[in-house]
């Protein structure tokens, strides 16, 4: 039995545990807030501290990229950490991410690194408006971000941003990436896996829809071979450059037929949750297979599938269980505004059937927690009905 | 969050736990050997005794039918037991099972109940040889069974059988059911669910293959509407007669176009494990939905699927992971001859693809632990290639 320690004890560790148990794997999680090693699906059970966790496991991995660097160093010293601390750090620092993309000649949005006022001013002159400013070290789900649409906003934004840079609690100097906003057609992501033998496999490109900066719906209905190949090339370049082991997620802006990398996540990813019901092997199992030295599982789409995030809500009407293929995944977390509490996976034999079921779901869910799901579902239905 | 207590802490409770966690259900198991309430996927965690378990849960169910009657009575007195103790007891006593079938006018093999030598002699005269004798209270997976093919064996068999009847450790008097052996074409089973509102749903009939009296392979490739209807009628008659709540499994002998009931199991069933990968909703989730008062999930077949039991073996070559759709399910049990240790689910877009994959799997698994899997796979391939 392989023993896996996950850095982070959130929903991704939990779903790794649920995927690993049938494989005979023993998955524990290191909760960075309490410094305890716990059972991911029932964190009341404590197994000791990080050193014990490291000593007792066969392999260490991470469910998030903002792990303290000394923790990563301790784990890496054991020789058990996969992917490498280098890869995890790149996911946690947009400056490293951007240099990696440039060094691999991978298309991404034009940017400037900002450490001070001079950088800020030069960003405004060298990039076209609108510009999006993203903190280098934090900032996913819309946190630590500013949008500059008009030069008149510059002073206000710089004031906030300089406070943010100077107040960074991290031991690593904070910084900002100024990025020219891309007038993209849609956002897509590829979830791929590479195992310790260098074998690679990737899931079909997922189309992602964000609401207030947070992923709200992902959908996969078919495979666009050309785009898939373009995305897979980016995935394989990065995975090989990093000698990566595990699941790696890459978010893109699609502009016409071109994909520009937006973000890299060195881990299983929210936009890959649909694979639990929609793919031959789910991303959690493939991550575990990869880091445990097993052959990767097929990443083939079974049938059109969508995932709806449940954000800041812990009460879903029972009636959704009447819709065929609805698979509800709760994370067992306390309700908090903006918090990812769970997700719903949904399939259809055809894109039309999936769209019809999504329309039914959206009619049952409340508008406050799922503000634009109906619109998304109706659009999918219109597209599928053509 | 619904709290469920399962009587029995084996693989069925474990798989209920894994299916219940994403639904936000808290599944615990009562281990009848240690009298402890434990976490099914990690039974080292003890939560107290039966009374505490009953007090702290919302609903009680069972993973096996041979629960001590006083335990069932204690659970039923709490008002939380589903299905009823009556239904569970019927599954645990072939005499009750046979009377139920007769009272519902459901076709089953001709039989005689044996308590003494006179019953035994009359069975031999009133039933045609060969006769199979099955202990009323135990005896699944081939235990507590005798086959009489020739009258000359009668004395030897009766000697063994009378010792068996008199040595019964149970508080309920042991007995034997003598059944005329049915020259069946194949063995099939239906797994159905009925929820507390009386809604019912059943999975497509599963074809089952036994090796040395133990289920070795189950396969579902398509739906035969007529047979399905016949099986569903039996299921619904029994489920309604028992005012049943939960998943109920019924095993049949198929003789020509007729189904004769062989056995009833008031629980999730080994021949329904394929539903984890092959159906819209798996049997474990549907059992939990049923007993928790939720709408049932779709029981539709996604694509042709097979399940291969892993018996008495804890080492499977890693190479099977290279076969697409292989889903391995270990039960985390200590290796013992004849013990169900896990199972492999396998799918194909077509029956042919499934059969080809099954042939590949059978070539990788050792013949000692999977003695007739190759033959089964080759037969399926021949049938699918027609």
TrEMBL record, chains A, B:
Catalytic activity: 5-amino-1-(5-phospho-beta-D-ribosyl)imidazole + hydrogencarbonate + ATP = 5-carboxyamino-1-(5-phospho-D-ribosyl)imidazole + ADP + phosphate + 2 H(+)
Biological process annotations from GO: 'de novo' IMP biosynthetic process
One Pfam family this sequence matches: RS_preATP-grasp-like
Single GO cellular component term: cytosol
Enzyme Commission number(s) of this protein: 6.3.4.18
GO molecular function, one term: phosphoribosylaminoimidazole carboxylase activity
Protein task: Catalyzes the ATP-dependent conversion of 5-aminoimidazole ribonucleotide (AIR) and HCO(3)- to N5-carboxyaminoimidazole ribonucleotide (N5-CAIR).
Protein family: Belongs to the PurK/PurT family.
The protein's assembly and partners: Homodimer.
The protein's name: N5-carboxyaminoimidazole ribonucleotide synthase
Protein source organism: Thalassotalea piscium
Lineage summary: Bacteria, Pseudomonadati, Pseudomonadota, Gammaproteobacteria, Alteromonadales
Record gene name: purK
């Amino acid at each position: 039995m392989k023993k896996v320690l996950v850095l982070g004890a959130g929903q991704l560790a939990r779903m790794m545990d649920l995927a690993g148990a049938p494989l005979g794997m023993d998955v524990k999680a290191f909760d960075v807030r309490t410094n305890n090693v716990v059972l991911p699906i029932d964190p009341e059970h404590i197994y000791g501290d990080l050193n014990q966790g490291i000593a007792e496991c066969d392999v260490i991995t991470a469910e998030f990229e903002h792990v303290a660097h000394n923790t990563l160093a301790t784990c890496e010293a054991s020789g058990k950490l996969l992917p490498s601390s280098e890869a995890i750090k790149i996911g946690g620092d947009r400056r490293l991410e951007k240099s990696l993309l440039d060094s691999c000649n991978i298309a991404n949005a034009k940017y400037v690194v900002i450490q001070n006022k001079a950088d800020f001013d030069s960003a405004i002159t060298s990039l076209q408006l609108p510009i999006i400013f993203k903190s280098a070290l934090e900032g996913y789900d819309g946190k630590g971000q500013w949008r500059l649409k008009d030069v008149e906003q510059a002073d206000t934004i710089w004031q906030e941003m300089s406070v943010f840079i100077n107040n960074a609690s991290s031991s690593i100097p904070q910084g900002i990436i100024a990025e020219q906003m891309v007038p993209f057609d849609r956002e897509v992501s590829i979830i791929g896996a590479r195992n310790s033998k260098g074998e690679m496999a990737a899931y079909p490109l997922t189309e992602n829809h964000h609401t207030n900066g947070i992923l709200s719906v992902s959908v996969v209905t078919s495979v666009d071979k050309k785009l898939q190949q373009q995305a897979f090339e980016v995935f394989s370049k990065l995975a090989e450059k990093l000698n990566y082991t595990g699941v790696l997620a890459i978010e893109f802006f699609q502009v016409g037929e071109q994909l520009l990398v937006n973000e890299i996540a060195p881990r299983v990813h929210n936009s890959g949750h649909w694979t639990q019901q929609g793919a031959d092997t789910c991303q959690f199992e493939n991550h575990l297979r990869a880091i445990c030295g097993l052959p990767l599982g097929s990443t083939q789409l079974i049938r059109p599938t969508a995932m709806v995030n449940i954000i800041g809500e812990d009460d879903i009407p029972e009636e959704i269980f009447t819709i065929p293929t609805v698979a509800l995944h709760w994370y067992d977390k306390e309700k908090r505004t903006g918090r990812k509490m769970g997700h719903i996976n949904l399939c259809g034999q055809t894109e039309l059937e999936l769209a019809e079921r999504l329309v039914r779901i959206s009619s049952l869910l409340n508008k406050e927690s799922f503000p634009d799901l109906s619109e998304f579902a109706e659009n999918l239905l219109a597209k599928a009905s053509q």
